[in-house]
Write the structure tokens for this entry.
Amino acid sequence: MSVDIKIGFVGSQRELAIASREERDALNNKISAALTADGESVLELDDTVGHRYLIRTSRIAWVEVGEGHSRQVGFIGN
């Protein structure tokens, strides 16, 4: 199961959406620590396909962390 993360940025209408394999509580702690750190910090997040995102925390406006949904494969009949 993956965890969905959405991040909004100051001065931008676009948001960054990431699916991560890390546990939700661990992600919440990592994000909180980065946002409350003094000075210019960087939040590092990895997605489910191996991409790493380096996000400057001074530009983050909001963060949403939610449970991901398992992907269904196939067709559903009526």
Summary: The chain has a mean pLDDT of 88. Residues 3-67 form a domain with the SH3 type barrels. fold (CATH 2.30.30). The first strand starts at residue 3 and ends at 9.
